[in-house]
């Protein structure tokens, strides 16, 4: 029998996860989602065939897994409203809210013994190619850890971290990183237009090249540095372009950007915990 899963919140990330689960064969009738607006829920029920309700406490009563998918700013109030209901069934809690630690969640839920997993997914989860970082609190069993991983694998790859602070690194390298690649695609599109291509052609070429390069990096036996060298003929066009990137300090720029992202993730975590 499939585990009963309740999503508190039905935004884009929740939809990506339960949509991926259903696409991979998970029974829709084992999934419940909650939201504040009935119209939203009716749309989800019609599209996915899941159970829907506006009653958060009632939705978690019989759940094996509760996925907290509300905005971080709303999380405290939501947790405090769920404490008594969660104490009955003691389900696995998975939070996809950035910046809120396991200890803070346990405090807001008023139960330090609840099993809690924090998850940092990214937006490509919406198309089944996400990358999620997971951290398990001390109360999470090996079986629950395996369950959390299997759920998130429905929308992409999963990487566990053994220290909670490393989720800020996951944010910098995966959570926020889709925007970095969109930025590169945008820059290539503009460069193509500047050299005479139409905007549509330039965009299609840039997107397909990014897709192909990522797929090669994923499937090849070689590391990215070797793949780069294989495209670089001596004194050729690619070599000259790469030298321009090197002279501009691209590696330093990427390091600076990810450090800034990491630092801001840490700042946000501190701010959220002080509320």
UniProtKB/TrEMBL annotation:
InterPro entries noted in UniProt: 6-PGluconate_DH-like_C_sf, NAD(P)-bd_dom_sf, P5C_Rdtase_cat_N, P5CR_dimer, Pyrroline-COOH_reductase
Keywords for this protein: Amino-acid biosynthesis, Cytoplasm, NADP, Oxidoreductase, Proline biosynthesis
Record-listed NADP(+) binding positions: 8-13, 69-72
GO cellular component: cytoplasm
Subcellular location: Cytoplasm
A Gene Ontology molecular function term of the record: pyrroline-5-carboxylate reductase activity
EC number, as in UniProt: 1.5.1.2
Binding site for NADPH: 56
Family annotation (Gene3D superfamilies): NAD(P)-binding Rossmann-like Domain, ProC C-terminal domain-like
EC supergroup of this enzyme: oxidoreductase
Pathway note: Amino-acid biosynthesis; L-proline biosynthesis; L-proline from L-glutamate 5-semialdehyde: step 1/1
Superkingdom of this protein's organism: Bacteria
GO biological process: L-proline biosynthetic process
Reactions performed catalytically: L-proline + NADP(+) = (S)-1-pyrroline-5-carboxylate + NADPH + 2 H(+); L-proline + NAD(+) = (S)-1-pyrroline-5-carboxylate + NADH + 2 H(+)
Pfam families: F420_oxidored, P5CR_dimer
Function: Catalyzes the reduction of 1-pyrroline-5-carboxylate (PCA) to L-proline.
Family: Belongs to the pyrroline-5-carboxylate reductase family.
Protein name: Pyrroline-5-carboxylate reductase
Species for this entry: Kushneria phosphatilytica
Taxonomic path: Bacteria, Pseudomonadati, Pseudomonadota, Gammaproteobacteria, Oceanospirillales
Name of the encoding gene: proC
């Amino acid at each position: 029998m499939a585990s009963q899963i309740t999503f508190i919140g039905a935004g884009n990330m929740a939809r990506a996860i339960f949509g991926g689960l259903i696409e991979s064969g998970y029974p829709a009738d084992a999934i419940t989602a909650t939201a504040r607006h009935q119209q939203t829920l009716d749309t989800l029920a019609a599209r996915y065939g899941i159970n829907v309700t506006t009653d958060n406490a009632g939705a978690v009563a019989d759940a094996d897994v509760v996925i907290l998918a509300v905005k971080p700013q709303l999380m405290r109030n939501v947790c405090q409203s769920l404490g008594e209901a969660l104490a009955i069934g003691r389900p696995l809690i998975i939070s996809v809210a950035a910046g809120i630690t396991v200890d803070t969640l346990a405090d807001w839920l008023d139960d330090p013994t609840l099993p809690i997993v924090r998850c940092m997914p990214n937006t490509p989860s919406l198309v089944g190619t996400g990358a999620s970082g997971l951290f398990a609190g001390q109360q999470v069993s090996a079986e629950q850890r395996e369950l959390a991983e299997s759920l998130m694998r429905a929308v992409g790859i999963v990487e566990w971290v053994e220290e909670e602070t490393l989720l800020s690194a996951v944010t910098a390298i995966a959570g926020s990183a889709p925007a970095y690649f969109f930025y590169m695609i945008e820059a290539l599109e503009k460069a193509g237009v500047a050299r005479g291509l139409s905007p549509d052609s330039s965009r299609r070429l840039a997107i397909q090249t990014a897709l192909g390069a990522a797929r090669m990096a994923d499937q090849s036996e070689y590391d990215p540095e070797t793949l780069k060298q294989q495209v670089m003929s001596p004194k050729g066009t690619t070599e000259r372009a790469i030298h321009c990137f090197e002279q501009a300090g691209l590696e330093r720029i990427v390091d600076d950007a990810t450090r800034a992202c990491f630092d801001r993730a840490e700042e946000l975590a501190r701010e959220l915990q002080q509320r």
